[in-house]
Amino acid sequence: MVVLTDKAQNRLTMQTADIAPNTTAIRSLDWDRDRFDIEFGLQNGTTYNSFIIRGEQTALVDTSHEKFRQLYLDTLRHVIDPAEIDYIIISHTEPDHSGLVKDVLQLVPEATVVGSKVALQFLEDMVHQPFKRQIVKNGDRLDLGNGHELEFISAPNLHWPDTMFTYDRKTQVLYTCDAFGLHYCDDYTFDEDLGAIEADFRFYYDCLMAPNARSVLSALKRMGELGKVTTIATGHGPLLYHNVEELTRRYRVWSQSQAKAETTVAVVYTSDYGYSDRLAQAIAQGITKTGVAVETVDLRSADLQEVQELISRVSGIVIGMPPASGDAAETTQTVLSTILAAAKAKQAVGIFESGGSDDEPVYPLLNKFRDLGLSIAFPAIQIREAPTEATYKRCEEAGTDLGQWLTRDRSIKVMKSLDADLDKALGRISGGLYIITAKKGDASSAMLASWVTQASFKPLGVTIAVAKDRAIESLMQVGDRFVLNVLEEGNHLHLMKHFLKRFSPGADRFEGVKTQPSQNGAPILTEALAYMECEVTSRMELSDHHIVYATIETGRVSNPEALTAVHHRKVGNHY
User: Fold this and answer.
1) DSSP state of 208
2) What confidence tens digit (pLDDT) does each residue in 311-364 have?
C-alpha cells in the first residue's frame, strides 16, 4: 500500500491496494469531510475509488474528485505509466468520479474513453477537448486480453441517467460507481466490519437509491444474469467482498418495498445544471420518507414516450426549472411540453428553481399547471444563492409535505382499522412530554415527543420513537447530536401547542420560543424543566417509525421540585 498525504490538507490521503489478479484500486480518502453535496450529512468522511485493470491492454475505471488532483495523478504515475492506459471507462460523469478525466487525457491523449451515449455527451461539456470515444450499450463487451473480458450493464438513474456498471469476467469484480456505495472512510479497503458501516450504507441508500427503487431492481436483475460476483468495487467507501450477498439482498428488499408503494411521484430535474440534481434528491428523499415511491426524470436525456407514460400514471409531479437558453434548452422545453400535455387534474405539482443563473421563470409554468386543475403541493422554492443545509432541509420538508398530502386518505383509513377495544386499551399507555431539538449547520428542527424512555444505565441512554416522515428524522442519524427537553407539568401547554403546529417547509420552528445553545449546538428550551444532551449511537427500523437509541452526555434540571408533564391518551391509533 502506498500512502501519500497532502501537506496543505493533511486529512486527504491516498491508498492503493491489489483487489484481484491484475487489478488495483486507487482510493482517495477524504477523512474530515462532514458534508457531501451539502444535503447528506457525513460522520465518517468519504472516499473516491478508481481502478486499474491490466490485460494485454489496460483500462482505468473512473478517476477522482478534483480536490485530489495532484495526489491522485502522483499516485497513478506510481502505480502505472499513464502511457500504458488504453481505455478510460466512465461509470458516470458526476465530478466526484470524473473530475480528473481531463487531466488523465492530457497525460494519455490517445486513450479511448468508454461510456454510455449519455455519459459521453455529458463528458464533452466537462473536458472541452476532442477525445477518442467508444459508446457501449447494455451487454456490450470489451476484451482487454488475458481473460479480462469486460461486460457493460446499463444502470440508468443510479443515480444519474448516464450510469453503467462494468463486470470483469475473469476476476468476477463488478464496478458499480455510486450503487452499493456509502460515505465512509477508514483504512480498510474492504467491508470487514459490517456493524461499523451498515448505518451509513442504509443512509446512503435512502438518500440516493430509494428514489430510484425501480431502477435498482432493474439493475439487480441484470446483475443476476452475469454469473457470480465476488467483489463489488464501489465508487465510495469500502469495496464489498465479505458481505456481497447480504448487502445486495438488502438493496433488493428495500427497493421491493419502495416499488410496492401505491402512490408515485415523478421528480423532474436537469442534470449538470445549477443545483438541480441535488435539490431534486433532497425533495425525493422527503417524499420517500412518507412511503410514496419516486421516479426521476432527467430533462436532458428523457425519452418522450416514457415521460408521457410516467406522467399519466403518477399522483404528483415535481419539476426543477431548466435553463432558458443554451444547447439543452430546446430539448428540455420539448420534455416540459410533453409533461404539460400528459398532466391531469387531481394530480399535485411542486416546482423549484435550479439555481443555475439562467432558470426558466417559475410562475408561468406553475400557472399552466394550475389552469389544468392540478393542486399546488408546496410554495415554489426559489434559489437566490448557493444552497445551504437549511435550503436542502426545506426541500426535504417540501417533499414530505407532498407525500403526506397524497397519502392523507390512506393514513385515516389505517387509523380507523384498529379494533375498537384494542385501540382504547393501547391508548392507556401514557408517557411524558418532551421536545426534541436538533441542529446541523444552519438547518434545525424540533418535534413534540411522548414515546421516550430510559433504556440503559451504562452508558446512560434513552430510546425515542421517531416517525419516518418527521422533519427531524434526517437530523437524528447515527452520530448526530440533539437535546431532549423535558416539559414541566403546569407549564407546558403553550410549548406543546407551538410545536404541534404544522410548519411550512423551511419555517423556523423556534420563532417566538426562548432558547439557548447547548454544548452540542442544538437549542435548549429556556422554559424546559430539564434537558439532556444526547448522541445517536444506533437506530432500529420499524414499519412506520425508527427507534433511536442515544447516549446521554450531560444534562441539568431547572426546578428539582417540579414534575414532568404527562400525556394521557384515550386511543392508541395516533399520538
Assistant:
1) I
2) 999 999 999 999 999 878 888 999 999 999 999 999 999 999 999 888 899 999
Separation CA 46–CA 200 (nearest Å): 10
* Whole-model pTM over 0.85: no
Contact at 8 Å (CB) between 567 and 433? Answer: yes
- Cis (ω within 30 of 0) for the bond into 159? yes
CB environment 237-274: b (16+ within 10 A), e (fewer):
bbbbbebbeebbebbeebbeebeebebbbbbbbbbbbb
Q: For 154, phi and psi rounded to 5 degrees? A: -70, 130
Q: How far are the Cα atoms of 14, 184, 239, 442 from residue 189, in angstroms, in the given order?
A: 12, 11, 6, 34
Q: pLDDT for 230-245, tens place per residue?
A: 999 999 999 999 999 9
Cis peptide before 459 (omega within 30 of 0): yes
Q: Are strands 164-168 and 173-177 parallel, antiparallel or unpaired?
A: antiparallel
Give the whole-angstrom CA distance, residue 462 versus residue 460: 7
Residue 454 neighbours by CB distance under 10 Å: 10
Angle at 482 between CA 480 and CA 483, to 5 degrees: 165
DSSP code, position 175: E
* 31: CB partners within 8 A, 6+ apart: 11, 12, 13, 45, 185
